[in-house]
Amino acid sequence: MFSxxxxxxxxxxxxxxxxxxxxxxAQGIAIGEERGELKRLASIATNxxxxxxSLDQVSDITGVAIADIQKALDSVKNTPTQ
Length: 82
What we know:
Helix 1 crosses helix 3 (66-77). The protein has helices at residues 4-50, 55-62, 66-77. The chain is mostly helical. The protein is rod-shaped, with a radius of gyration of 23 Å. The longest helix has 47 residues, at 4-50. The protein has 3 helices and no strands. 82% of the residues lie in helices and 0% in strands.
């Protein structure tokens, strides 16, 4: 039979584990969403550049800063394929 202290300790550990799992899961989802947005922006920018648009024009049309477009393009270039 467990003492009250042991039961509370185990319950506390489970609670902390569950909280940590949920926090990690939320962070993973946020990272995935950011990567997806960067990949989508890179795809749009690449297609536009392939159709003769300059980076300035891509920025004007999409409303996205040139630095952010370049970041997206660089992130896709530096991401290993799976």
